[in-house]
Amino acid sequence: MSDATVALQLYTIRDAVAQDVDAALARAAEIGFTQIELFNIVEWRPQLEAALAAHGLAAPTAHAPLSVGEPERAFEAAQALGVTTLIDPFIAPERWTSRDEVLRIADELAANAEKARSYGLSFGYHNHNWEIENRFDGQTALEVLAGALPDDVALEVDAYWAAVGGADVPALLETLGSRVRFLHIKDAPEIDGALSKDREDQLPAGQGAIAWQPVLEAAPQTELLVVEFDEYRGDIFDGIAQGLAGTRALLGA
Fold first, then answer.
1. Which residues of 105-198 form beta strands (DSSP E)?
2. Would the pTM of this model clear 0.90, i.e. be above it?
3. pLDDT class for 69, splitting at 50, 70, 90?
4. Whole-number Å distance between alpha carbons of 231 and 251
């Protein structure tokens, strides 16, 4: 894990990016981020390409929901932006309620992974809580998915969503094994004896109740830790600065 690096998920500062891509990425770089996990790459492709270059930022990964829209445009944009792994970040929660449907999802992801390879890209999937909360014969839906995917399809495990979804996150990571190449890092407070599922309660790593060291130790092969908030009560740039500091502290950097 000492070799892992830290990135910012662009969705976190989406409002600032929508106003001014260059200014938002300039602030992220000033805070200390050197890598950005992109989103909305088709619509913002020209602006992102210019801003990444202007501020010396790399984009090793990007999110693009391929179940809607035109996947080829996402692959082309990822290729142009220097992305190496394109990640599908969302498949609707109602599709995770039966094993058969999870296996169909695996087939769809495998097909997109094959397309991604033709563009020189790796491919992966990012979870939320519903892939954890739905279980079949003692396995989470995410584990069922992983067991049906080709070996080269990566997982980006959102440790926060896995934790609030009820997983023993270190055990889950050990089960998922080496295909876990990326981790999303954000924290949650404990309220009435349980982790809060309220997106508005999300905190920088180390400021909540998630035990991070066992999580990181369970996935030593992780290449990238991604600071992200779905929502944040305070100033978002202050939040990502605290998130970067907290994540670096976890790495001992």
1. 122-126, 135-136, 139-140, 153-158, 180-185, 190-191, 194-195
2. yes
3. low
4. 24
